[in-house]
């Protein structure tokens, strides 16, 4: 149903009302009230407090003997964010961040999420977990109006990294996704990760990189438009979206979100698990100066990881994982290796690694000096 608040939107928003009204179905709400309730009373409950990406909440790498019900709470927030200097997006977010926070559970656990749609919001929202089974990934059971909340529980039956996103139905689905409403859940095997030989693998920390393509309209002068609210932005944004050419391709919500003062930090010898999601477009991560020691390219831990990859592929609508042990200090650039998107549109992160340089791995044999071009270097010519 169209909310009262949406019905009172301004003139620009009114142009979007017919589309909003059609979309407010979550592709038909399912009635599961006749199904027998699951008796999980014997299971232990734990609460996890979500944290802002690229960090990930506290979790065990190996699960206890018995499955648990893992409780999360998440708030949907519509708000304006600055994607780049002078470029503002009327964003839709899970927990106020783009991407939404990463959740971690173990295979066999139950995920129990209470989802809140803030009263200040204009639109209906829901959540579709690619890791869940049934009911459009939970989308048809979680559609809520502003000022409403709902609780969904599902069993995490498949280990891996998976995307979640908003999917309220029809043309609302791509709009909500490219406005920031996506995130990631990692379902670890109960015994933890294993390598290509089946031996246990541990990581020192997780960095969660959520990649987004944004479609911010421009005016007749070529300047980015700015809108009063998310509904007003819809008609112009839809036109840009349908052209399939993003104005920005960024990590974690904005240009420079993970560079400079916001760079990631690690220590020499640390093993970092990079989890990378893209809910809409294909991408190909690359760590300049490093590698993927072990890569679950499609993010599924039942599959044997690939080894020693220079660049790996993340299909649109999926999340992948790559483990790397940093052997040298320095600043590493983690990029989408479509270098146009990395350098010109924003898809770059930096990892600053502290430690002692190892000349056996790389050494500058001679610092740059001038040479006599008339005599030297001739053998380098074709």
UniProtKB/TrEMBL annotation:
Protein source organism: Pseudooceanicola atlanticus
UniProt-recorded Gene Ontology molecular function terms: copper ion binding; nitrite reductase (NO-forming) activity
Matches recorded under InterPro entries: Cu-oxidase-like_N, Cu-oxidase_2nd, Cu-oxidase_fam, Cupredoxin, NO2-reductase_Cu
Catalysed reactions, as listed in the record: nitric oxide + Fe(III)-[cytochrome c] + H2O = Fe(II)-[cytochrome c] + nitrite + 2 H(+)
Cofactor note as given: Binds 1 Cu(+) ion.
GO CC annotation terms, alphabetical: periplasmic space
GO BP terms, alphabetized: denitrification pathway; nitrate assimilation
Record's protein name: Copper-containing nitrite reductase
Coiled coil: none
């Amino acid at each position: 149903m169209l909310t009262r608040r949406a019905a009172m939107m301004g003139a620009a928003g009114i142009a979007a009302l017919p589309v909003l009204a059609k979309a407010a179905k979550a592709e038909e709400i399912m009635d599961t009230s006749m199904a027998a309730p699951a008796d999980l009373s014997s299971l232990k409950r734990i609460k996890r407090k979500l944290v802002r990406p690229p960090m990930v909440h506290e979790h065990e790498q190996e699960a206890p003997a018995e499955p648990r019900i893992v409780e999360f709470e998440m708030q949907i927030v519509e708000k304006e964010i600055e994607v780049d200097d002078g470029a503002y997006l009327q964003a839709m977010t899970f927990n106020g961040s783009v991407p939404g926070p990463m959740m971690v559970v173990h295979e066999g656990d139950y995920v129990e999420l209470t989802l809140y749609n803030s009263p200040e919001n204009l639109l209906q929202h829901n959540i579709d977990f690619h890791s869940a089974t049934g009911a459009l990934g939970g989308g048809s059971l979680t559609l809520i109006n502003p000022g409403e909340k709902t609780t969904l529980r599902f069993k995490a039956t498949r280990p891996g990294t998976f995307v979640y996103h908003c999917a309220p139905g029809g043309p609302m689905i791509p709009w909500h996704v490219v406005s920031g409403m996506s995130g990631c859940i990692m379902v670890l095997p109960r015994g933890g990760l294993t390598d290509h030989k089946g031996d246990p693998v541990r990581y020192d920390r997780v960095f969660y990189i959520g990649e987004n393509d944004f479609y911010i309209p421009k005016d007749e002068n070529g300047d980015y438009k700015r809108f009063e609210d998310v509904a007003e932005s819809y008609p112009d944004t839809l036109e840009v979206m349908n052209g399939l050419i993003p104005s920005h391709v960024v990590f974690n919500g904005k240009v420079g979100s993970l560079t400079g003062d916001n760079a990631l930090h690690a220590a020499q010898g640390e093993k970092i698990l990079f989890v990378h999601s893209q809910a809409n477009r294909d991408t190909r991560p690359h760590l300049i100066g490093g590698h993927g020691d072990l890569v679950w390219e499609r993010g599924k831990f039942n599959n044997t990881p690939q080894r020693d990859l220079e660049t790996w592929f993340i299909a649109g609508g999926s999340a992948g994982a790559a483990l790397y042990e940093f052997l040298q200090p320095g600043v590493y650039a983690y990029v989408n290796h479509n270098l146009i998107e990395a350098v010109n549109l924003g898809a770059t992160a930096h990892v600053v690694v502290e430690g002692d340089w190892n000349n056996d791995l790389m050494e500058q044999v001679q610092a740059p000096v001038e040479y006599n071009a008339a005599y030297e270097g001739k053998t380098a010519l074709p």
